[in-house]
């Protein structure tokens, strides 16, 4: 797989197939990098690439991967780039080296993310629920004759991954698994001044029991009058599950309200599209800030 083809994928997706690249090809990249930059500048990025299992290290891994695969980055230390989006042109010294590299990387990454974006316009409705957006928080509401159904979730830190794909190193454009947002969500059933509140989360395929294919499970349940406060009593899903049939009956009750497996899968698709849009917006805001716009 050529480095140019590999770089066509967004950095968040490139992380997923890094471990599946043949060691011999990675070794060739390292040798080329050593000849260009010297041993001391290469060893540190490689050390970080080895431990990208933790989320806080993944962004650093993507940056180091870009450093090793980009010929353009080797020229930044000596030549002021005319591609800087702020329009500083050839006015040497207007931006620091780190700022120039970051802006150029972000420009490339934003283009890749927009190319990978499946939903360009975020819908305002999901299967009869009206969507309201406020930063990272999404609220879905549906009113019936007897009650108000409100679903809220936050897309922050909600991105999960499907099963790791097999990557064929001989393909110029290998298939990379899709990133999906699967946030915990709260379901409020409001009837007059009383509210039943159910906190739910997605069930990983590996944890689904034989014979059951529920996309989500119950984490917590509470009921209260007026506004919720810290003194409201709640019971965990594990306790509900220990009571004969109660857990399943509550799931059936939610299903009658419209929270079917199909709907929750649609919720994940919506959250994925919105999270991706928010991520691109963050990259654009970061680029403008660094460029001084």
Automatic annotation (TrEMBL):
Transmembrane segments: none annotated. This is Complement component 1 Q subcomponent-binding protein, mitochondrial. Belongs to the MAM33 family. It comes from the Eukaryota. It holds the Pfam family MAM33. It comes from Dendroctonus ponderosae (Mountain pine beetle). One of its GO terms (biological process) is cytosolic ribosome assembly. One of its GO terms (cellular component) is mitochondrial matrix.
């Amino acid at each position: 797989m050529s480095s140019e083809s590999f770089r066509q994928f967004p950095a968040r997706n490139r992380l997923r197939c890094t471990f599946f690249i043949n060691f011999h090809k990675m070794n060739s990249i390292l040798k080329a990098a050593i000849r260009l930059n010297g041993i001391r500048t290469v060893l540190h990025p490689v050390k970080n690439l080895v431990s990208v299992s933790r989320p806080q290290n993944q962004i650093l891994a993507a940056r180091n991967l870009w450093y090793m695969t980009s010929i353009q980055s080797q020229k930044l230390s000596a030549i002021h780039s005319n591609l800087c989006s702020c329009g500083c042109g050839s006015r040497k010294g207007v931006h620091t080296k780190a700022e120039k590299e970051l802006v150029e990387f972000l420009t490339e990454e934003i283009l890749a993310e927009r190319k990978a974006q499946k939903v360009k316009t975020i819908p305002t409705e999901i299967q009869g629920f009206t969507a309201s957006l406020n930063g990272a928080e999404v609220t879905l509401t549906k009113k019936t004759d007897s009650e108000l159904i409100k679903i809220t979730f936050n897309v922050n830190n909600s991105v999960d991954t499907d099963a790791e794909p097999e990557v064929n190193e001989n393909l110029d454009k290998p298939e990379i698994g899709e990133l999906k947002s699967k946030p915990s969500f709260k379901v409020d059933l409001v009837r007059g001044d009383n509210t039943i509140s159910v906190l739910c989360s997605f069930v990983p395929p590996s944890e689904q029991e034989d014979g059951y294919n529920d996309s989500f499970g119950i984490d917590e349940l509470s009921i209260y009058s007026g506004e919720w406060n810290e003194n409201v009593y709640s019971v965990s899903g594990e306790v509900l599950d220990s009571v004969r049939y109660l857990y399943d009956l509550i799931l059936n009750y939610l299903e009658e309200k419209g929270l079917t497996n199909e709907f929750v899968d649609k919720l994940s698709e919506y959250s994925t599209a919105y999270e991706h849009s928010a991520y691109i917006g963050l990259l654009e805001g970061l680029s403008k800030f660094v460029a001084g716009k």
